Structures
1.
Amino acid sequence: MKILRVNMGGKEGPEVSITNLGEYEGLGGRALTSAIVSKEVPPDCHPLGTENKLVIAPGLLSGSAGAMTGRISVGCKSPLTGGIKESNAGGQPAQVLARLGYAAIVLEGKPSSDNFYKILINKDGVKVETANEFRGLPNYDLIEKVKEQYGDKVACISIGTAGEMKMSAASVACTDPDMRPTRHCGRGGVGAVMGAKGVKVIILDDAGMKMREPANPEAFKEANKRWVEALRAHPVTGKGLAAYGTNVLTTIVDEAGAYPTYNFRQGRFQGAAKISGEELAKREKERGGNPTHGCHRGCVIRCSGIYNDKDGRYLTKQPEYETVWAHGGHCGIDDLDAIAMMDFLEDNYGLDTIETGVTLGIAMEAGLIKFGDAQGAINLIHEIGKGTPLGRILGNGAAVTAKVFGVDRVPVVKGQAFPAYDPRAAQGIGVTYATSTMGADHTAGYAIASNILKSGGFVDPLKPEGQVELSRNLQIATATIDSLGLCLFVAFAMLDKPEAFQAVIDMINAFCGWTWTRDDFVEYGKKILKWERDFNTRAGFCPQSDRLPRFFKTEPLPPHNTVFRVSDEELDTLFNF
Amino acid sequence: MKILRVNMGGKEGPEVSITNLGEYEGLGGRALTSAIVSKEVPPDCHPLGTENKLVIAPGLLSGSAGAMTGRISVGCKSPLTGGIKESNAGGQPAQVLARLGYAAIVLEGKPSSDNFYKILINKDGVKVETANEFRGLPNYDLIEKVKEQYGDKVACISIGTAGEMKMSAASVACTDPDMRPTRHCGRGGVGAVMGAKGVKVIILDDAGMKMREPANPEAFKEANKRWVEALRAHPVTGKGLAAYGTNVLTTIVDEAGAYPTYNFRQGRFQGAAKISGEELAKREKERGGNPTHGCHRGCVIRCSGIYNDKDGRYLTKQPEYETVWAHGGHCGIDDLDAIAMMDFLEDNYGLDTIETGVTLGIAMEAGLIKFGDAQGAINLIHEIGKGTPLGRILGNGAAVTAKVFGVDRVPVVKGQAFPAYDPRAAQGIGVTYATSTMGADHTAGYAIASNILKSGGFVDPLKPEGQVELSRNLQIATATIDSLGLCLFVAFAMLDKPEAFQAVIDMINAFCGWTWTRDDFVEYGKKILKWERDFNTRAGFCPQSDRLPRFFKTEPLPPHNTVFRVSDEELDTLFNF
C-alpha cells in the first residue's frame, strides 16, 4: 500500500508524489488520518490555509473480502472545531481506493489560482486536471456529469457548493453502490478543507484491480464467516437496522426521554410517532422505495434505504436517525416528506445534516423562522446553497449562527453541534460529547448503547456513576474500529458477543499477518486517542474545552427533570490511561 | 461610595438595590469591574445570558478635582473574546457618576420580555423605566431625544443599534462635554452585553451634587498642581496630542514601518500623508472645526477635536489614530472625509471603530468589495446598522466575518482584532497583543512608547530581546492607571518624569487617605491582572490562547522584512510575577 500525496500549491500546478507508508506502516482509516495530521500539520495553522492537509484513508481491512469493511476516514485540522478531525462514511470509495493500492490520499498546499480540480485515480495511475466546468454544481448534478465522462462504475469523493464556499458545515460526499452521493463524512467541515485545496471531486476507478489478498487467506475466510454469522445473529445488526434503518431509534430515544426537542428544551416530542423508523419504513415500502439496502459492497447489516416522493420518484436515501431528529424534534417538525427533502438538499449542497439541522433550530431560536416551520427551514437550506450572506452564516454551523444572531442557547462542544441525544437523560453520551477529541460527536463513544439500548451491559442513564468509564472504553474501542474500516454498528455485536469480537481479532491477524490479542486492539485505540488529544492540546484546547454548555448543568430536562451531573473532575479523568 | 445594582430579570421588572462597597472597598475603575466580574460571574456562562453582569465603574479618583481623572470602565464577560473584558472611555459619565456617589453600576439578570429600559440617576435616586420609544435609535438620535426630555446638562451612557442587536463589535457610548456620544468603550462587545440586559441608555444628572472631597484637601490640591505642571511640560502630553490629536501617530508609525497596510501585508502605506494628523488638523482648522478639545471636564491634554464636513457642518469628533488606520491603511483608503464619515457612522450605530475597520478589511480580503473602496466600505457599515444578515456578520467582528467567508488571514488574538501597529515591526506590542487578558489590545500595555516613541527608554522594535519585560511592566502599570480613572496618555509623562509619577502617588494618598509607595502602585496592578488571568483560565484560556496568528511568525513584513520572533516560551513568562 502506498500514500498518494497531491501538493495543490505546486508552482506549475498540482504535483503528485507516491511514497511508501514508512513510519505509518500498520495504520489505516482514522489511525492513519490522525497520525498524519498530528505529525505533519502545525497545530496553530489556519484550517483553510496552505499548511493544513486533508487526509483520505480507507480502513486497514478495506478492499478485502471482509464484511462491513467499507468505511473511509477523512482527517484534517477542523475549520469547525479548530482541533483535529476524523469523519468517516460508508459508500464505495473505501473499497475502491484500497483495491487501487492506496492507504491514503493526502491533499496538501493550496492553489494560488481559484481553479477547481478533479483527481482521477485508476490502474494506470493518477491524473490531476482542472475541472472548472464542475464549479457550482451540487453533488447529485456533479455525479451526473462524472457519469457522462467516466461511466457509472466509478466511485466518487466530492464536495458540493458548501465545500466550494469553505463553509464549516460542509461535508465530503461518497457515492453509494447506485452511484449516488449519499454517504457523507459530515462532521467538522472536512468539505471546507477539500474546497480550500481546490479539489472538487476525486474519481476512483478500480477496473482491472483485484480484491486485496490477506496474509493468510484461509484463516481470513474462516474468520470472516464467523464474523458474518455473529452479525446476523444479533438482534440489532441482524434485524433491527435492516428493518427500520437507524431511525428505529426515534421511538426508543423518545420513550427514554432523551430526545432533544425544541432546541434541547424537553426530552420527548409529541410528533415522534409521525417521524419514527416504523413510519419511515412503511412509507418507503408503500411508495416503491426500499428500507433495506447496503451502502457499500460487503455490507450485511443493510441499514440504508431509498426514500421516494409521493409520486414514487427517488427523493433521497433513507434519512438517518440523527438527520430525522435534527430537522424533526429539534426543530419541532413532524413531516417526513419535508425532512426527506432537507436530507436530499443537504446531501446535494454537501452539508453535515446534524450541524445543519441543529443550525436551523438555532435560526428558529433567533426568530428567523418559527419552530415547526418546515417550508421556512427548506428555504433556509436553499440560502446556504446559494451562498447568500444569510446562507453563509447558516452554512458555518450552529455556533457561528448563534453568535451572529445573539442567541445564548447553543448546544455545542468545541464549536460542534450536539447530535440527537440529550446528555441530561443519557449522561454517558454527555461524557462523550464533552471529552471527545472531535467535539460533540455521538459516534466517538456511543454510550447510548449501554445507557438506553442495554448493549454491552447497562449503565443507568440518569446517574453520573460509571459514565466516564463507559465513555472511555467506548472511545478507545471506537478509535480502533474506525481504523479498521469497520462500520460502527458492528460494535453492538462485538459488545454483546465474545465470538464476534474474537472474529474481528482473527480477521485482523489473518489479513495483516499479526498476532493481536484483545489487548492489542485496545492499545491501538489508546494510541490514536493520544495522538488526537496531543494535537488538540497543542492547538489550544484545555480542560475547560471538555465541558458541556452551562445550561445542561443548570436547567432540568423534562420528563425526568434531571441535569447533567458528571463532575468536571470526573470528566478530567477520561484520558487517564 | 455605593454600588448600584439593577437586576433586569426581576419578576415584576427591574429591581434596584444599593449597597456598600464591602469587600470591594478601595477599588475603582478597572480594578472594580474586574473584581466584580471575576468574583461574581460564572466563567462558563454565556456572555449574553442571564448570569453575565455589566459593571460600569468610574475611576478611583473620578469626580474629584484631579486632572485627567475622567475615565470610566465597563467590564463583563466578553461576547467577542469569551474572556474577561474591561473597556474604558473618556467623556462626562465618570465624573458625573462618581459625584452622584456611585462606585459602580452593576447590571444583572436579563429581562424576560423584549422591553428596552432607561435608567435615570440623579440626586433623588434611581429610576428604571421602559424606553421602547428609543428602540432602533442610533446614538446621536437617541441623545437628541434624551436632550428633549432631560436637557443638555446630563451625561449619558448608551448603546446604538449594534448593541440592541447584541453584536460582538458593539460599543458603549459616553457623551462628551458637548453632549455628543463620541467617547466609546469600544472593545470586546460590551455594548452587546448592555443590549442583552435590555438597557438602552443610562442618564446621569449630577445637578445639586458636589465634587468629591479628598481625605486631605490641601495635599491633594498641591499634588494636583504638580501633576498638571508635569503634564504640560512633557512634549507629548503638553503639545503633540493637543496639536494633532492621536493621529499624530500616522506619520511616526508609518515611518517606523509598523503601519499595517492592506490587512497586514506591508508596514508602510503610500497614502499615509493624506490621512496624517498634520493633514487632519489642517483640514479641521480650515473648515471651522477644532483640533484641540478636551473629551471630559478636567482634561489638560485636549487630544480630541471636531471634524467638520466640506460645508463646515459638524460631521464627527476628530477620529483617533487607530480609527484612521483601521479604515485607512488597513483598508487601503486615503480619503479623510470618507474615514471621518465612517467614524461618525460607527459612533452612531455604536460600534468599536477598531474591530469594525479591521472587519471591513476582512470583507475586502473576502472579495466583497475591493481594497480602497471607500464608498463600498460606507455601504457595508450601513448594512451593520440595518442589521441585514450581511450586517450581522460584519457587526460581529473580524474573526466571525473571516470564518463566515472562509478567509484564512485573520489578525486577531482571543477573537479580538489587532489595533494599528504591526507586531513584526514593533515586537513589544506583539507581546501585549498575545498575552493581554483582553485579547489584542494596544492600550493594555502600550509598548509602542518604548519601541517607537522612545518614551520610558528604548527597546529595539525589531528584536525580541526585552519585549516581554517591557510589556509586563506596562501591562501592570496600565491596570492601575485604568483603575484610577486616569487617561492612559498620562503614562508618557509618568514614564519619563519621576516627579509626574510621584504627583500621582501623592494624589492617591491625599484623596484616599492612604500611604502608597510606588511599589503599592505596582502591586495594585498585579492584583488586577491576576484576577483577570484567573477568570480567563477558568473560562478556558490556555497558553496557546496567548499566541499571535501563525502568519506573523512566518511571513516577513516589508520594509524591514522581519517576522515576530518572541518565542512561545518567553510569552509564557509574562505572568510570572
Note: The longest helix of chain B spans residues 518-539.
2.
Amino acid sequence: MISKNKIKFIRSLEQKKFRKENGVFLAEGNKLVSDLSNFFKCRILVATQQWMDTNKDIIADEKIYVEKDELSRASLLKTPQDVLAVFEIPSYTLSMDCPKNELCLALDDVQDPGNLGTIIRIADWFGIKNIYCSHGTADAFSPKTVQATMGALARVKLHYCNIKELISSLNDVPVFGTFLDGDNIYNNTLSSNGLIVMGNEGNGISKEVSELINRRILIPNYPQGNETTDSLNVAVATAIVCSEFRRRQL
Amino acid sequence: MISKNKIKFIRSLEQKKFRKENGVFLAEGNKLVSDLSNFFKCRILVATQQWMDTNKDIIADEKIYVEKDELSRASLLKTPQDVLAVFEIPSYTLSMDCPKNELCLALDDVQDPGNLGTIIRIADWFGIKNIYCSHGTADAFSPKTVQATMGALARVKLHYCNIKELISSLNDVPVFGTFLDGDNIYNNTLSSNGLIVMGNEGNGISKEVSELINRRILIPNYPQGNETTDSLNVAVATAIVCSEFRRRQL
C-alpha cells in the first residue's frame, strides 16, 4: 500500500527542482533498478510482492509493497514494470585533470534527455568514465535520461561545469570537436587522452568553445560530396567518433 | 482557414490504418516539408501566410492558409512550426538484387519509430540507398519516424518484406549481423556489397534470421572484457557498423 503523498513525491521527481531539493532521482524497471542498486543508495523501493521476493538482497531505507495498478499511479512510464526506486544522487569531486590522462567527453548544451542518456551508454561501452557537461546540457538525473542510460549511469561520472573554463585550464591537451570543415577522422592522428567536445542538436558547438578546439575533425559521408542529410544526430556522431578512437587503441 | 474535417483527417494520419487507406503521410516543420517537397507529391500544404510567401515554388494539390494557432490544432508536435504537409507515400518496385551490387541494410523487427528514423538518417549519410524491413519493423511513414529522418526519407528506399526469404534468395552474398560472440569488426574483412542485418531492440536478431547470417561481427567494447552496458542502442550500433564499412572504402 502506498500513500497519496508518497505518490505525489515520486512523481514530483520529474522536475529538476524537486530532485535537487531532495538530492534524489527516480529509476524504473526491473533490470535498471536492480543494476543501479549496486551503485547508488536506495531511499525508497516500490515493487510488487513477487519482485521483492526475487530481489531480497536489495537494501533500501524504505520498502513499499504494492499491487501493479498502484505502481502505475506512481510511475512516469507509459508501460510501468514491477518496480520503481528513488536513489540518492551521488556527489562527485570535480576533477579538471582527467582529460590529461584519459579520454573524456564534453557536452556543449546537448539538450535532449534521450540523446544524453544514449551518450552516457555509449561512453560506458567505450570505457569513457568522465563526461563534462555545460550548464545548458540536459540533467543526467531526469527520468528520461536515467531510463535511456540503461544502467550506464552507474559507471560514468557527469560533471556540470563551464566547458570554456575547463578547456582553458588544459594546457597542451588535445581537444577534439566535429565540424563540417574538419579533417577526415579516419586519417587523423587520434589520442588516448584528451577531450572530445560534442555540441547542441541544432547549433553544434558554441562559438566560444569552438575557438578553443585544437583538433577539428569530420565524420565523412559516403560517397564524399554526395547530397545527404545535413548532419548526424549528436548521439550517433558521438558513437562513431568514440568507436574510431578506441579502434586505434585495440 | 482550415475545416474541422481537414484537421481530423490530418490528425488521423498518426494511425497506420488511415495512412494506408489514403496512401499518404504527414510531415511537419519548415525544413522537413521543404526538403520532402522536392521528392514527394504534396497533397495538402497547411502553412502560415508568411511561410507560403517565402516558399512559393512548392507545388501542392491544395494549399491552406492558416494562423499559427489553427496549425497547432492540426499538428501532432508539442511545438508546431509554421507548416505541415500531407505527402503521397511513394511506391517502389521491390528489388531483391540490390545487396548483390551494393551495401544494404535489413531491419529485423526494429520497433521504435525514433530508432527507425535515426537509422534512415544514418543510411543516407553513408550512401546506403535501400533498407529491407521485416513486417514487424516500425512503419517508416509514421509521423515520429518521418520527423526523426530529417528529410533522409527522400533519398533512402524502404522495402517491407520477409527478411528470411530475402537472404535465402541471395546466393554467395555476404550477410553481416552483430552478435556478442561475433568477430571483432575492426579486424574483419568487410565488403562493399552485401546485407547488414540489425535486430530488435530487446531481442536482437531473430533465431531464424540468425541462422542465415554468414558473417558474424562484434563491436568490441573498451577495454575489452570490461564490465559495461549490456549492448548498444540499435541505431548507435548501425552507425558504428556503417562507419566502419565506409571507412574501408574511402
Note: Chain B touches chain A through 37 residues (CB under 8 Å).
3.
Amino acid sequence: MSAPANFNGKIPTIDVADTAMLLIDHQSGLFQTVADMPMTTLRANVIALAKAATLTGMPVITTASVPQGPNGPLIPEIHALAPHAKYVARKGQINAWDNPDFVDAVKATGKGTLIVAGTITSVCMAFPSISAVHEGYRVFAVIDASGTYSKMAQEVTLARVVQAGVVPIDTAAVLSELQQTWHRDDAQQWADAYTQVFPPYRLLIESYLKAQDVATQHEILDSDRA
Amino acid sequence: MSAPANFNGKIPTIDVADTAMLLIDHQSGLFQTVADMPMTTLRANVIALAKAATLTGMPVITTASVPQGPNGPLIPEIHALAPHAKYVARKGQINAWDNPDFVDAVKATGKGTLIVAGTITSVCMAFPSISAVHEGYRVFAVIDASGTYSKMAQEVTLARVVQAGVVPIDTAAVLSELQQTWHRDDAQQWADAYTQVFPPYRLLIESYLKAQDVATQHEILDSDRA
Amino acid sequence: MSAPANFNGKIPTIDVADTAMLLIDHQSGLFQTVADMPMTTLRANVIALAKAATLTGMPVITTASVPQGPNGPLIPEIHALAPHAKYVARKGQINAWDNPDFVDAVKATGKGTLIVAGTITSVCMAFPSISAVHEGYRVFAVIDASGTYSKMAQEVTLARVVQAGVVPIDTAAVLSELQQTWHRDDAQQWADAYTQVFPPYRLLIESYLKAQDVATQHEILDSDRA
Amino acid sequence: MSAPANFNGKIPTIDVADTAMLLIDHQSGLFQTVADMPMTTLRANVIALAKAATLTGMPVITTASVPQGPNGPLIPEIHALAPHAKYVARKGQINAWDNPDFVDAVKATGKGTLIVAGTITSVCMAFPSISAVHEGYRVFAVIDASGTYSKMAQEVTLARVVQAGVVPIDTAAVLSELQQTWHRDDAQQWADAYTQVFPPYRLLIESYLKAQDVATQHEILDSDRA
Amino acid sequence: MSAPANFNGKIPTIDVADTAMLLIDHQSGLFQTVADMPMTTLRANVIALAKAATLTGMPVITTASVPQGPNGPLIPEIHALAPHAKYVARKGQINAWDNPDFVDAVKATGKGTLIVAGTITSVCMAFPSISAVHEGYRVFAVIDASGTYSKMAQEVTLARVVQAGVVPIDTAAVLSELQQTWHRDDAQQWADAYTQVFPPYRLLIESYLKAQDVATQHEILDSDRA
Amino acid sequence: MSAPANFNGKIPTIDVADTAMLLIDHQSGLFQTVADMPMTTLRANVIALAKAATLTGMPVITTASVPQGPNGPLIPEIHALAPHAKYVARKGQINAWDNPDFVDAVKATGKGTLIVAGTITSVCMAFPSISAVHEGYRVFAVIDASGTYSKMAQEVTLARVVQAGVVPIDTAAVLSELQQTWHRDDAQQWADAYTQVFPPYRLLIESYLKAQDVATQHEILDSDRA
Amino acid sequence: MSAPANFNGKIPTIDVADTAMLLIDHQSGLFQTVADMPMTTLRANVIALAKAATLTGMPVITTASVPQGPNGPLIPEIHALAPHAKYVARKGQINAWDNPDFVDAVKATGKGTLIVAGTITSVCMAFPSISAVHEGYRVFAVIDASGTYSKMAQEVTLARVVQAGVVPIDTAAVLSELQQTWHRDDAQQWADAYTQVFPPYRLLIESYLKAQDVATQHEILDSDRA
Amino acid sequence: MSAPANFNGKIPTIDVADTAMLLIDHQSGLFQTVADMPMTTLRANVIALAKAATLTGMPVITTASVPQGPNGPLIPEIHALAPHAKYVARKGQINAWDNPDFVDAVKATGKGTLIVAGTITSVCMAFPSISAVHEGYRVFAVIDASGTYSKMAQEVTLARVVQAGVVPIDTAAVLSELQQTWHRDDAQQWADAYTQVFPPYRLLIESYLKAQDVATQHEILDSDRA
C-alpha cells in the first residue's frame, strides 16, 4: 500500500505508550554475514535500542534462530541492557512470526505498535514486520539496527517493507521519538545512548567539558606558557 | 500503484504452492555487462535460486536472448541444478513476455505467483515482470539475482517495478520464504544454498564443526603443547 | 500518487507510436557540474537516445538554458544523430514547460507519452516532467541520460518524480522498449546503440567475430605454432 | 500515503507566494556528526537556501537544540544572510513542532507551504516535516541541506518522509523553483547562489569571462608569442 | 633496502626451479577478519596458488596458528589441491619463522626463493617474509593471496615489506611466471587456474566456445528464425 | 634513504626490550578532523597500543597540543590503560621533538627503538618520527593508530616517512611483534586487545565458546526440538 | 634498486629522440578482465598513446597473446592510429620478452628508452618492463594505459616495477613529455589527444569556442531577449 | 634514488629560511579536469599555501599554461592572498622549468629548497619538481594542493616523484613546518589557514568559543528553562 499501514489517521510517529520492541536474531554468527554496514555500527545501534527500551520501560521481546548452530548465540548486551526483555525460543521457524509462542508474547504486551530490528534484515526483520502489518500492527522497522549481506539487499528490503506499509526508521530517530525532550532527569543517559549511534557525539562532550573547565578554572593555554 | 499488485488482501509473501520461477537471459556475454554487483555474486545467487527451486519442486522456466550471438550461452549451472527446468527459445523478442511460447509455458504451470530474475535487470527482468503484473500475476522480482550495467540503472529499475506493483526481493529472502523452517530433513542442503548467497556462512560452518570437534575430541591447543 | 500517472489501466511501458522525446539542456557547461555519474557515461547515454529516436522516427524536441552564457552550447551530437529534432529557444525560463513555445512544440507532436531527459536532473528534467504529468501526459524520465550535481540529488529527484507519477527508466530500457525485437533489418544499428550504453558489449562483438573467424578460417592458435 | 500530501490537485512544485522556510538545528556540534555528505557541502547548501529566501523575501524561521550544550551554536551564516529570519528558542523539545512558540511562528506567516531543512535529517528535519503534513501543510524537505549520521540513515529517512506525504527535494531544485527565470534583475545573485551548490559553476563563470575577454581584447595566446 | 633483496644481479622474477611456496594461516576464523578484499577473492586466489604449485611440482609448506581455537581450521582446499604440501604444526608462535620445525622444513626444500602468502597479511605473511629475507632468501610476497583487517593495513604492509627487500607480487603474476608459456600440454589446467583469479575469464571461455560452435555447426540465430 | 634507518644489519622488526612507545596528540578535537579512517577505529587502535604497552611493561610517553584550546583534551583511555605513561606538556611547539622536555623524556627511557603514533598523522606523527630517525633512533610509525584529514594525506605521509627511513607498521603487527607467542599466561588479554583492532574476532570467540558449550553440554538444537 | 634504472645521471624524463613504444596484449577478451579502472578509460588512454606515437614519429611495436583464443583480437584502434606500428606474433610465450622476435624488433629500433603499456598490467606490462630494465633499457611503464584484474593488483605491480627500477608514469604525462610545448603546428592534434585522457577537456573547448563566438558575434543572451 | 635528494645529511624537513614556493597552473579550466580529490578541496589547499607563504614572507612564483585558451585564468585567490607573488608568463612550454624566465625567477630567490604545487599533478607539478631535483634543489611536492585527472594518476605520480628524490608532503604538513609553534603573535591567522585544509576545525573553534561563553556568562541551558 506504500502508506504507513494501520495508522488510520494517526500521525505516523512512535506513540511510546502503545509500543513494544522486538529484537530478533542478533547473533554472533549471523553478524559475520553482515555487509551493508560495519558490524560494529550494527552492534552499537542494537545496544542503543536496548538502552532506550529500558529508559522508557517499554516491553522487549527477543528470540534467536537456532543459536546452538553456526548462527551462534545472541549478543549478550541485549539482555544485559534490557534485563526485562523476554526471550522466546523458536523451533526452527525462520519467520519468528510463524512461532506461536512469539506471537503470543507480542500479544501479551497489549501494544498496537511495534519497533522491529533483526539480522538479517532481508529475512529476520522483514518477515515478522510484514506479518505484523498484515495482522493490524503499526510497525517501525529499524533498518540500521538490523544488518544484511549486501547494501543492495538492504535497499531492496527497504523498498519491500515500505511497499508493505511498514514505516522505515533509523536508530537515532527511534531514540529521539522515545526521548521526546532534553528536559528530563535522565537526559544524561540519553546522551550516552546517542554516543553509541554517532560516536563523534562523545568527542563533542569531551571537548565541551574541557572548554568549560578551562574557562571556569582560568587554565592557561600551553602556547601561552613562558 | 506502488502496492503489491494482485494480492487482494493476501499477505505479500511467497506462497510456495502457488509459485513458479522464471530465470531469464542469464548468459555468459550479458554477464560481462553487469556492473551493479560483482558478476560472481550474481552467478552465485542464480545458482542458489536454481537449487532452491529444485528443493521445493517448484516449476522453473528459462529462456535466452539470441544465445547464438554475442550475448552468449546460458550459464550451464541453471539446468544442471534445476534439471526439471523448461527452456523456451524465443525468436528475437527482447521482452520474453512478447513470446507466446513463453507465456504459454508460464500459464501451463497453473501458478498465480512468479519469482522472476533476469539479466539485464532493467530489461530482461523488468519487462516480463511488469507484463505479468498487468496480466494479473503476483510477481516477486529478485533484484540481486538479476544484474545490470550500473548501480544507477539497478536503482531506477527497482523504483520502476515497485511503482508497477511488483514486490522487490533479494535472493536470501526468496530462499527463506521457500524453506520456511530449519526443522526439515533437507536442512543441510538449504545451508549449502545460503553459502552461495553469503559466503561467510561457509566459514561459520567450518569453524563451528572444528570447535565442536576440538571439544568432543579433547584436542589440545597448539599453544598449550609443550 | 506514486503510481504511473495517466495510464488509466494501460500497461506502464512505452507505446512507441504514441511517444515523443524531449532532450533538455544537455550543454557543455552544465555537463561540468554533473557528479552523479561519469560525464562520459551521460554523454554516451544521450547519444544512444538520439540514435534510437532516429531509428524509430520518433519526434524529438530540444532546448537549452541560456546557451550564450556559462551554461555553454548544446552538445552537437544530439542534432547530428537526430537531425529531425526541433530546437526551441527559451527566454530565460528555467522550467522548459514555462516556455509557451516549448509546450506548443510538444502538443504539435500529437503524442500523449513523453520520454524526458535533461541536465541537471533535479531541475531541467524534473520540472518539465512533473508539469507534463500534471497536464495529463504519460512521462518516462530517463535518469541516467540526465545527470546532476551529486548522487544524493539524483536519488532525491528519483523519489520526487516517482511520487509525482512519473515512470523512472534507464537508457537501456528505453532502447529495448523502442526496439522490441532483434528480428528487424536495422538490428545492427541497435547493437551499435547498446555499445554506447554498456561499452563491454563492443568487446563482446569483437571477440565473437574473431572467434567465429578463427573457426571458419581454421586459423591456428599462436600457442600451437611450431 | 506516498503521494504529495495536501496538494489537492495542485501541482507539487513550490508556490513562492505561499511558502515559508524552516531552518532547524544547523549547529556547529551537530555538524560534526554528519556523515551522509561532506559537512562543507551541507554548510554551503544551507547558505544557498538562506540567500534564496532573502532574494525572494520569503519568511524564515530558525531554531536550535540546546545551543548552550555540546550541540553548539547555530552556524552564523544563516542569520547573516537572512537577517529577517525569526529565531525561536525551544525548551528542550527535540521535535521543534512540539514547541508551541515554533508552531505559532509558523502559523503567523500565514503560509500553507513549508520548505524544511534540519540537522540531523532523521530527527530534526523529519519530525517537524511529518508533523506539519499531519496538520495540513504542504511540505518540501530539502534532503541535502539537512545532514545526518550515515548515508543509510539518510536513505531511510527519505523513504519515511516520502511515505508520509512530504515532497523530497534538493537544494538546487529549491533555488530554481524560487528563481523561475534568468530574465530578472537579480540574476547575478542567483548565479552566485548556485556556485555554493555546485562549485564547478564558479569555474565556468571564471573561464567564460576570460574567454570573452580574450576575444574582445584580442589578447594573444602565450603559445603564439614569439 | 627497498631493492629486491638477495638477488645479486639476478633478474627479480621467479626462478621456478629454485622456489618453494609457503601458505600460512589461511584459516576459517581468520578469514572472517579480512577486510582489504572480498574473502571469496582471497579464497580463490589461495586455491589458484595451490593449483599452480601442483602443476609445477613446487614444494609447498603449510602451517596454522592455533587451529584448535577461534582462528579455526585451515581451509581444506589447500591440501586437497596440493596434496604434496607438508603441514608444520607450531607451538603458539605467531611468526611461523620463530618455529624451528617450520624453518627446518623450508631449509629441507633446498630452495633459495620463496613465494609467501599468509593471513593476516600484516602479521602472518609479513613476519616470515622479513625473517626469510634477513636470512638470505629471495622472497615474493603474494599480497592478494594473503588478506588483512583493512585496506590501510594492507597498504602499510606492502610499503613495509618492500622497504625490507621483499618483492611484492599478485596472484596472476605468480601463475604467469610459473607457467611461462601457453605452448604446453597442461595449458587447459592453467586456464582453469586463471578463472579463479579473474572470473570473467570463465565467461570468455564459455562465449568463445559457443561462438565457434555456432560457426562450425551453422546454427541459426534465434532472431533469424521464422 | 628508503631503507629502514639505523638498523645496521639488525632485522627490521620490533625488539621489545629496546623499545619505548610515543603516543602524541590523540585529542578529542583533533579526532574530529580525522577522515582517513573511521574515528572509532582510530580510537580502538590507540586503546590497543596502550594495552599492549602495559602488557609488556614498555615505557610510554604522551603529550598533547594545546589541550586547553579547540584541539581538546587527550582521550582518557590512554592513561587509564597505560597508567605508567609519562605525560609531557609542551609550550606550543607543533613538532613534539622541538620540545626539549619531550626529547629528554625519550632519552631517559634508554631505548633505541621507538613506536610512534600521533594525530594528525601528517604532522604530529611524521615530524617526531623523522626527527627521531635523524637522531639515530629506529622508528616504527603506526599509521592506523594515527589519523589525518584525508586518505590522500595519509598516503602521502606514508610515502614520506618511508623515504625518510621510518618503518611503517599497522596496529595488529605491533601487537603481534610485542606478543610473539600465544604460549604465555596473559594470552587472553592479548586476545582482548585484538578484538579492538579487528572486531570480528570478538564474534569468533563468542561463537567458538558457544559451539564448544553446545557440544560438551549436549544441548539440543532448537530446530531439532519437538 | 628503487631508483630509475639505467639513467646514469640523466634526468628521468622521456628523451623523445631515444624512445620506442611497446603496446602489448590490448585485446578485447583481456579487456573484459580489467577492473582497476573503467575499461573505456583504458581504451581511450591506449588510443591517446598510439596517437602521440604517430605525432612524434616514434617507433611502435605491438604484439598479442594467442589472439585466436578467448583472449580475443587486438583492439583495432592501435594500428588504425599508429599505422607504422610493427606487429610481432608470439608462439605462446606469456612474457613478450621471452619471444626472440619481439626482442629483435625492439633492438632494431636502436632506441635505449622504452614506453611500455600492456594488459594485464601485472603480467603483460610488468614482465617485459622488468626484463628490459635487466638488459639495460630505461623503461617508462604507463600504468593507466595497461589495466589489470583489481586495484590491489595494480598497486602491487606499481610497487614491484618501481622496486625494479622502472619509472612509473601516467598517460597524460607521456603525452606532455612527448609534446613539450603548445608552440607547435600540430597543437590542435595534441589537444584532441588530451580529450581522450581527460574528457572534460572536450567540454572546455566547446564552452570556450562558444563563449568567444558569442562575444565576437554579439549574440544576445536568451535571458535578455524580449 | 628514492631518498630525499640533495639533503646531504640535513634532516628532510622544510627549512623556512631557505625556501621558495612555486604555484603552477592552478587555472579554472584545468581545475575542471581534476578528479583525484574534490576541486573545492584543491582550491582551499592552494589558498592555504598562499596564505602561509605570506605569513612567513616566503618568495612565491606563479605561472600559467596558455591562460588565454581553454585552460582558463589562474584562480584569483593566489595573487589576492600572496600579493608579493611574482607571475612569469611562459611561451607554450608545458614544463615550466623549460621556460628560462621561470628558472631565472627561481634562481633569483637565492633559495635552495622549493615547495611545489601544480595542476595537473602528473605534468605541471611533476616535471618542474623532477627538473629542479636534477639541478640540485631540495624539493617538497604538495600532492593535495596539485590535482590531476584520476586517483590512479595521482598515485603513479607520487611513486614517480618519490623515486626521483622529491619529498612528498601534504598541505597541512607544509603549514605546520612553516608555522613551527603556536607560541607566536599570528597564531590566529594560522588557525584560519587550517580551517581551509580541514574544515571541521572551524566547527571546533565555533563550539569551543560558545562553550566557554556559556560557562563564563552563566547562560542557562534551554533544556533547563522553565
Note: The mean pLDDT of chain C is 96.
